[in-house]
Here is the input.
Amino acid sequence: PLLEKDCDATYKVLILGDASVGKTALLRCLTGKEFHDRLLPTIATDFVKKTFEVDGAIIELQIWDTAGQERFHSMNRWQYRGVKGVVMVYDVTDQSTFNHLFYWLKSVNEEMEQTHNKYDPVPIVLLGNKSDLESGRKVKLKDGQQLADKELAFEFLETSAKTGKNVYDAFRKLAFHVTEIC
Ligand code: GDP
Ligand code: MG
Here is the structure.
């Protein structure tokens, strides 16, 4: 087959979570852009591309950043179409962003039931971001781990878009799970 790009397959994934948890900062970090302490809110839906090598194949994640709809808790249904994986983010210094994960997980499950085969679970990687802000921590590492276990998230990591901790690893793990299932 003729490949548009220099990779074996492209997969659409979404990054979800409350406003200000660091979704855009994580994608900037992943794609080698510098960190800004005052990042402007995302104003348009946008995506970044990142390639990974999984079992000898080059695969590309097309990662869709959400553009402020999180404020209104109303993701548009079309954004879930064709989605093969989800990165779900909370802020370890903001308990409410962790509490809202119940909403995010519910909405993902509902949408996926509409558009996906129920026997193919969509891999979810759960991230507790801003882990560099240890003094402001409100959500314990074990709380994130417990939620991930309970909700069958495929992976859980604490990340920092500021220091880069675990950022590449998190998306690498998602790429692995996505290709396992597809
Ligand atoms: P989004 O609304 O989820 O896309 O959040 P942003 O990426 O716009 O980040 C919101 C704010 O948090 C920005 O001022 C970022 O600089 C800051 N931020 C994001 N990630 C981190 C992180 O890992 N550590 C620290 N200290 N600040 C972060
Ligand atoms: Mg953003």
Observations:
- Residues 86 and 124 are 5 Å apart (CA to CA).
